[in-house]
Amino acid sequence: MSTYAQLLHDAYVLVGATGTLYAATVAIVAGVCVLARKPQRRRDARATLELLLRQQPRSR
User: Considering the chain, what percentage of its residues have pLDDT values greater than 70?
Assistant: First the structure.
């Protein structure tokens, strides 16, 4: 395998791993958002989720 092909393959693997890690992080934060018992913790998780998904904060 040529050096260029190996570099391209490694880049695809890195992009896939990064995407998987990001999706897992969003899923965990969304779970905390729903399952947290304390309202403050739910608000913090919701704010973090808004940052991760790059959404504008909702007026409360």
Answer: 88
